Amino acid sequence: MSNSTRCAACKSLRRRCSEDCALAPYFPANNPQRFACVHRIYGASNVTKILEQLPIHARATTVDSMTFEASSRIQDPVYGCTQIIFKLQRQIVHAQYEIAKVQAELALHSAQHQMQQQNHTTNYQDQNQYYQAAFEQEEFHFDQ
Ligand SMILES: [Zn+2]
C-alpha cells in the first residue's frame, strides 16, 4: 500500500503500510478513532501479536471485541465493560425473578381454579343428592 492509502494503524504509528499489514483489514483509514481507542488501551504491538496468534476468520470478531472493551475502559477506567456485564447480569437475575414470580402466580391461580371447579361439581352433586332424597321422600310420602 502506498502512504496515501495507509491503514489507520500505520498512519497513526507513522510507518509504511505493507501489503501484508496485519492490522490493515481491521483498521481502515476512514476510521482512525477505532485504532486510537484500541492502541491506547492495548498498544499496537500487543494488538498485532494477539491477531497474529489467531486464525484469520476469528480476527475481525476479536478486533470488534477489543474495540468495545477499549472504548468501555476509556469511558469507565475503573470497571470498563464489566460495568455493562454486571448491569446485564442484574437485569437477567431480575427477569428470572419476575418469571419465577409469574409462574408461581399462574400455578396458584390454576390451583384455585381447579378447587373452584371441584367445589362447583361437589355442590352440584350435593344438590342432586338433596333433590334425589327429597324426591324419594315425596315418593315415600305418596305411598302413605
Ligand atoms: Zn497498516
Please describe the topology of this protein.
Blueprint (H helix, E strand, L loop, with lengths): L7 H6 L18 H11 L1 H9 L3 H20 L6 H62 L1
The structure holds zinc ion.
Protein name: LOB domain-containing protein
Organism: Rhododendron griersonianum
InterPro entries: LOB
Describe this protein's structure.
It comes from Rhododendron griersonianum. InterPro entries: LOB. Belongs to the LOB domain-containing protein family. By secondary structure, the chain is mostly helical. Helices cover 75% and strands 0% of the residues. It contains 5 helices and no strands. The longest helix is centred in the last third of the chain and has 62 residues. Bound molecules: zinc ion (ZN). Zinc ion (ZN) binds next to helix 1.
Q: Top keywords for this entry?
A:
rod-shaped; 144 residues; mainly alpha
Ligands (ions, cofactors included): zinc ion
| Quaternary structure of the protein | single chain
**Strand share of the residues?**
under 5%
Radius of gyration: 37 Å
- Give the uncertain stretches in residue-range form: none
Question: N- to C-terminal separation?
Answer: 120 Å
| Global mean pLDDT | 90
Tally of contiguous helical segments: 5
Tell me the number of strands: 0
Order of helices and strands: HHHHH
**Percent of residues in helical segments?**
over 70%
